[in-house]
Phage integrase family protein (Maricaulis maris), 348 residues
Amino acid sequence: MPLKLYKRPSGLYHIRGTFKGIRVDQSAGTRSRDIAEDERLAIESRISKESIHGRAAVVGFGEAAIDYMEETGQRRFLAPLITYFKDTPIAKIGREDIERAARQLYPKVAPATRRRQAITPARAVISHARGTRPQPRPKEVTRTRWLTVEEADALILHAGRLAPLLTFFLNTGVRTSQALAVDWSDVDLDACRAWVGPAKMDTHGHWAHFGRRTRAALAALPHREGAVFLTPKGKPYRLPKGESGGNPIKRGFNQAKAKAGMGDDVTPHILRHTWATWAYAVNPDPYRIGEHGGWATGEMPRRYVKLAPPGYGRKVIEAGWELFGLEQPENESPQYLPSSSQTSRNVP
């Protein structure tokens, strides 16, 4: 049956009744019967569309966000999104609309921050309105793998054109995006150092120090202008955009590790774990490791450092890896220990 209008003693019209199984009992918010009738018809139209296409086809983002907050108790980061989307129907909001909103709301932040403060909460509201639940994020896999000096040598031996880059990784502990962005104007071969910019929220720009082994690898490169590390075609690498942009050296790296007899647990990022583990074995000073690794906080190295066998720092030095620059003495006094959940041993 259609909904009905009732006039209250105050003169305001009220809409009441059951339409397509949906009970309605609300004020029309007006003393004009014509306006109240338009509101009644609009409610019936909305209920009809919702019964055919689902609630997401008619509900606006603002209303959906309020429902989401009331049911889940989650309110963080939603206010700017509600202001941006207002009553835009959920059905008309797609991936590109969410990403555009994220860029406009947070134009100067890192991609990870933009995802956390805009993209993720917007998707959560939309999924809630559609009656679907986003898949739970997989638990973070704790990496316990690191390379021994013998494995590192084998990887470099089979790396071909990537050998100087992998040597730079292992000697400095920088991320892939940081290394590929290094320009020759950022490099001081005499002082054995290169300036690398920040990569993520847990890193900052810093001087990456290296030793004679890396200096020889860089000095052997045939060019001295532009990007230090080039593709097999002699072009600068196209840097990935965001965290899901992929790793531009993945193919060459996988070929090298396969030839060296290594498995899927060895990735380019494992080289950063390797550097941290070697650095701790050489000198377990949290401040020095944090500064040379470019970490923004002293706690971050705990996620990367693994416990190598006793005396392994000497083995690292004897293999020619001067991790803190030239003439760095070994110091194995136990001043800094990673948490027990982050430790492992690779016995060479």
